[in-house]
């Protein structure tokens, strides 16, 4: 155990910027939610009307939490708790993979294993750091709400729920790192488990039973199979129920034990899930850096593309249902029109879903450009570059594939919207979907360019900063308009300033700024790459 303190200090030193960004962003989200709800839904009557709308329309519950009453604090946690939990989950999931499977890929783990510290010391140090980061984040969330004057019981439950999410997905990341051969594979497994758990919780809430006054929802059994569902069942400031957190802590403990068992059963740098053997010879088309970048990312594009297709279909297929409800309930109309910047209710619904489609495209863009960093860290980029491959052309291959993938994902979303508009019998919705899709494509492309610039300047922080930007700007785009934030805050999110449909035309909004950032970040990345050397070990 004498090796644990220096290993822990090393991890904290490596992660100090990334963890600081994650924690500050999550705490600011928790803080802004209280003031935003007070400003936008200050009266009890407004909150009651909105809750009746939400409970009557299960689709909205897919992107929100579990209604627990119109009290201002309980109402705020209904809107924000799942996203606090998701931020904590992403933070610890990436941390776990970065210091286990990532270090094995880079060779650091082999060097540490050759010392008296032993093989399991890095795993233990990662666990201690992840637990500490989760508890710190949970304590800060609770402290924010205590400082704001909210009830101590609910504040502690909200903080504990946020910490519990971090602990569960820390353990998920540790297990994924034992199973998969690469950090990319481990991150992919962890992210898909996280998204599946989030969706299961949302669907479980949507399929629940509402109270007679439509102010509270009792989840169906499906929500109880998800860690996010357990956290939402605590119902801070309403029930302050600590019992569901026992399941979260118990699952985290079981998964940590499984991670240690799997770690002891495999070889260093090996994965328990065998890699699929490739063909004996490469096809002729795989003779360029562009083709190689496409080959490395086509599997992930398929997954994100399916998500885009389904999101686009929901954008138009459900719009008529929400439009009818918006005509009956003014609160829904105000909610959707706030997100659509004064457009019609059905346009507001399309804008909401295309914001989600834009996030999916941005995730692919960040993942693709981050793959360049992973290739560099593993040493495979050096092999490619040794064949007289220009360094700018090598980076450009990943960036261009990211741009193409963004267009494909948003194109599939529009195709899904075409099917949905046929079902809804509304051709206007398809035009709105095309406008929204084009706007979100510009927004998602910005993340590819900015991540490429980070890769050139701060290669070690490529993955952390890239994913952090997506999550933080998603929070701004999704919540800032609802909370009545100043325009300059909302406009920090590329998703929020992307062009949207307006009446029979389009509102170009921040298109010029998006294209300017895209050109400047991309141009700077390629210009600076000319002088940048490989940094294989980070």
Layout: helices, strands, pairs:
Elements: H1 4-40, H2 44-56, H3 58-61, H4 72-99, H5 101-106, H6 108-113, H7 121-147, H8 152-179, H9 183-206, E1 209-210, E2 217-218, H10 227-232, H11 243-265, H12 289-317, H13 319-328, H14 330-339, H15 345-378, H16 380-385, H17 391-424, H18 427-457, H19 462-479, H20 487-490, H21 494-497, E3 500-502, E4 505-507, H22 511-529
Antiparallel strand pairs: 1-2, 3-4
**Helical content class:** over 70%
Rough shape? globular
Q: How far apart lie the N and C ends? A: 27 Å
Would you report the number of β strands?
4
Number of helices: 22
**What integer value in Å does the Rg equal?**
23 Å
Strand content: under 5%
Structural class assignment: mainly alpha
Walk me through this protein's architecture.
By secondary structure, the chain is mainly alpha-helical. A hairpin with a 6-residue loop joins strand 1 and strand 2.
In brief, what are we looking at here?
The chain has about 550 residues and is mainly alpha-helical. The chain has helices spanning about 5-40, 45-55, 60, 70-100, 100-105, 110-115, 120-145, 150-180, 185-205, 225-230, 245-265, 290-315, 320-330, 330-340, 345-380, 380-385, 390-425, 425-455, 460-480, 485-490, 495, 510-530; strands at about 210, 215-220, 500, 505.
